[in-house]
Amino acid sequence: MRFRICVFLFLAASLLAQSPNVQKSNTAENLRGVSVLSNQVAWASGTHGTYLQTTDGGNSWQASQVPGAQSLDFRDVEALNADFAYLLSAGPGDQSRIYKTTDAGKSWALQFTNKDPKGFFDCMAFWDRDHGIAVGDPVADNSGKLRFEMIATEDGGKSWTPAPSGTLPPAVEGEGAFAASGTCIIVQGNSNVWFATGGKAARVFRSTDRGKTWIVADTPMIHGPDSAGIFSIAFSDATHGVIAGGDYKHPEQNGPNLAFTNDGGLTWKLSTISPQRYSSAVALAKSATGVAFLVVGSTGASYADDITKASWQKTWQLNLNALSISPTGEAIAVGPKGLVVNFSALK
Predict the structure, then answer these.
(1) Is 269 buried (19+), middle (13-18) or exposed (0-12) by CB count in 10 A?
(2) Are 211 and 180 in contact (CB under 8 A)?
(3) What is the pLDDT of residue 193?
(4) How confident is the model at residue 328 (pLDDT cuts 50, 70, 90)?
(5) In this predicted structure, which of 72-81, 90-99, 143-152, 225-234 has the lowest mean pLDDT?
(6) ∠ CA 346-311-316, rounded to 5°
(7) Residue 139: burial class (beta carbons within 10 Å; 0-12, 13-18, 19+)
(8) What is the spatial distance between Cα 50 and Cα 59, in angstroms, rounded to a whole number?
(9) Peptide bond preceding 256 in cis form (omega within 30 of 0)
(10) CA distance 184 to 71
């Protein structure tokens, strides 16, 4: 099986030919979110209310804090352009919040604050600047069944509406999502959305109508401990996707930590590539043979130009948390202590 996606070939060529470029981020915060656009614009986010911006491909980064958010951990950033971005902070109760800027961070509007003390939001995704969705760990509904929290906006975040009770299939006891890289949920096209889980179950939830109805599929990924499962999900089109994860407490453990689908997430097949250490984020790009994919985690980054291969073509010893590839192939990853790595800066 071969994936076909529409991203330029230069990323694949540059990853094989060059070394990643560690960039000066001007912060020492732990970075957990990154969003890369196609015009040398990128945003990143992290601890103590921190966000970063670049408009020159990362040659220079500006680091700032959202006023009043110094106690928050921004685990996800979703940027639409150099001026327009959303930030999601993850944490219990009211530590889970969503902010928005439309003026490159000169001002921030607090749009959503989680009011359930048992709630914990993990990640978000946007189809466009007005339509987005966010997922949180399961809480008990009125009937006592555990269900993932889901909120959506259709007006640019002016209002965030909870999904009606019972919309989502019940969660398994001990199942949750991971706020590790802002990539536990992904949207595609005009209405497709998937999110991935871990803990006692490693499953993928899928909706084709922007979260109004859902189906769920089991996967063969590692699960069981609270620290294990699917951490990241990526799709190239409506049918072809990849999930990556592992056990973050045992990052050297060799899988099964990587799987793919060619039927929109209805079924998942383990990748045979080896080794399969813990990955907190996965992203896709096109290669001459099909799909090129890049994974990052606390033990390093790995690249292959085809998910059906038996071994990686390139690996790097880098401690990274999150990863984003732009529509035109620029790849940036972020990690602890302000680490920012540009995988395509030397193309």
Answers:
(1) middle
(2) no
(3) 98
(4) confident
(5) 143-152
(6) 35
(7) middle
(8) 19
(9) yes
(10) 23
